[in-house]
Amino acid sequence: MGQPKLLLTLSLLLSALALLLAACGGDTTSSTQSKTGGNLAVGLNTDVVTLDPVKSTALVDRQVMLNIYDTLVHVNEQNALVPDLATSWSYSSPTQLVFTLRTDVKFQDGTPFNADAVVFNINRILSNQSSPRYSELSSVQSVQAQDASHVVFNLKKAFSPLLATLSDRAGMILSPTAVQKLGANLANAPTNAGSGPFMFGEWAKGDHLTIKKNSSYWQKDGQGKALPYLDTVRYRPITNGSLRFSNLQTGAINLADGLDPNDISSAKSNPDLTYKQAPALSFFGFMLNTKVAPLDNLDVRQAIEWGVNRQEILDTVLKGNGVLSSGPISPTSWAYDKNFKPYTYDISKAKAALAKAGKTSITFTLLVPSGSPLNTQEAQFIQSELQPAGITVNIKQETFATILSDTSAHNFQAALIGWSGRPDPDGNLYSWFHTGGGNNNMQYSNPQTDLLLEKARASSDQQERATDYQQAQQLILQDASYIFINHGVSVQATTTSVKNFTIQPTGIYNFATVTLAS
C-alpha cells in the first residue's frame, strides 16, 4: 500500500490544489462578487438525532456535523480525497500510516488542535465497541502522537479504506477539553466543540437547529478572504415533502433537503429556483431482521425479494429519479457490476420460495418514517406488491429517531431505511453486512461474506478489491437481509439567491463557501 515518494509528493500537491479550488466555491461567482453575511434557512427531511459523531447513524446528523466539525481528510465534489486537518499522509509500512497535521488550527473553545486531539478522538471510538464507528476502524490497532503535528495510525493489517473512512464521522476531530466538559450533553449541545466553519448555536428539537459563523475559522478562500461568508444556518425539520417544497417556493427556506418526485418538474420550471441533480452513492430499500420470525427463514426472505416490483416503485413512486438497485454498490462506484441482476419481479418464484419454507402465507410489520407521504406511498406499494404472493405487510409509522433506536436494539421485523453512501465501497458494505458491523441491525452473518470484506479491506489492488466486493454482494443478495430497491440522486434545490453551492456525491451540504445574493 506504500507509494513512491515522488508520486506521493505529486499527489499531495494536487490534493492541496484541489482543496484550494474547493475553497473557491463551485460556481462562477467569485468571492469578491459575493455578499458576506446573511442567514441561510434549510428545510431538512427529518429532525437531527444526535450531534455526537461516535453515536450517530443518520445522514441528517452529518448535514450539521460536517459544518461544525473538521475531519482529517475531506471528500470534494469530484469524490476525491483531499487534505483537511491533515495536510499530508504517507505509509511508512503497509500497516503504519503517518499524518502531518495543520499547526494553525484552534478549536472553537480556544484550545489547540494537535496530534493529542486526534489520539483522543480515535480512542473514543476504539474504546467503545457499541459505537457504529467501531467497525469502521476495527482494523486500527492503536494511534499515537509522534509530536504535536504528526500522528501515527498502527494497523492490525493493511486497511485500504482508512483515508475514506476518516473523511466522515470516524475522522471528525472534536476538542478533547469540550468533550470532557460537556459529557452527555455533547449529543445535544456541542458548544465550542469543533474547529469547522460554523459553531453550534441552539437546538429546539422538532422546531429548529441553528449554527453560527466561526469567526476564527482557519480556512480562507482563493483571495485570502475569511470563510465562512454566512452569519448563520438555521435548519428546520420538515418531513412532509410537499410542505418542504412549498416553503422553498415562498422563500421561507433557501434550501430543501431533497424534493419529492412530484415536485421536481415544478422546481425545474420555476425561475426563482435552482434545481440540479447528480448520481449518488446511496442505496434505498428495507432491512429484514434475520433473527426474528418469520424473517429468520432464508426462503421467506427470498420470497420477499421476488415479490417486490422495484421497477414499479422507481417509475410510479419515484418518477424515474434514480436507478434500480441490485445491491449496495451504486453505478457511481468503481466496484459496480452492471451485469449483476439477481432478482426480478416474479410472483410465481415468490410463491415457490414461500412454499419451500413450508408456508402458504406470512405476515410481518414494516417500520416506516412518519410525516412523509412519499415514504408512506412506497410502503403501500411494497404492501400491495407482496400481497399476491401470500405476504401480508403491516405498515407501522414511527419517527425517524424512534426507528433508529428500534433497529439498533433489534426491536423490529423490517424497516424502510436507506444509506447515503460512501466514496469507498467498504463504506457501503462492511458496517452493514459484516458480522457485528455498526449498521448491521439485520443481524446478518455469513463467514464467506466476512472473509471477502476483510480481504478487500487489506488489498491495495483496486481490481482485486472490486472482485471481492462483487462476490460479497452476490452472497449478500443471496442471503436477502436487505431488499434493495433503488440508488438515489444528490440534489441541489435552492432559491436562486444561494450561490457557490455545489452538489456532493455524498449528499452532504457544505456551507463554508456558500453566499446569499442581495
Number of helices: 15
Overall mean confidence score, pLDDT: 92
Q: Kindly, what is the distance between the CA atoms of the first and last residues, rounded to a whole number of angstroms?
A: 50 Å
* Poorly predicted segments: 1-32
CA-atom Rg in angstroms: 23 Å
Biggest sheet features: 6 strands, mixed
How would you describe the shape? globular
Helix content: 25-40%
Verbal overview:
The protein is an alpha+beta fold and 518 residues long. The protein is built from 15 helices and 23 strands. The chain has a six-stranded mixed sheet with strand order 16-20-15-19-17-18. A five-stranded mixed sheet has the order 10-11-12-1-13, sandwiched between helices. Strand 5 and strand 6 form a beta hairpin. The chain starts with a helix and ends with a strand.
Task: Break the fold down into its secondary structure elements and pairings.
Blueprint: H1 5-23, E1 39-44, H2 59-68, E2 70-71, E3 73-75, E4 81-83, E5 86-93, E6 96-101, H3 115-126, E7 140-147, E8 150-155, H4 162-165, E9 172-173, H5 176-182, E10 198-204, E11 208-213, E12 232-237, H6 241-250, E13 255-256, H7 261-269, E14 273-279, E15 284-288, H8 298-307, H9 310-317, E16 323-324, H10 347-356, E17 362-369, H11 373-386, E18 391-398, H12 400-408, E19 414-416, H13 426-433, H14 447-458, H15 462-479, E20 482-487, E21 489-495, E22 498-499, E23 515-516
Parallel strand pairs: 1-12, 1-13, 17-18, 17-19
Antiparallel strand pairs: 2-9, 3-4, 5-6, 6-8, 7-8, 10-11, 11-12, 14-21, 15-19, 15-20, 16-20, 22-23
Helix pairs in contact: 8-10, 13-14, 14-15
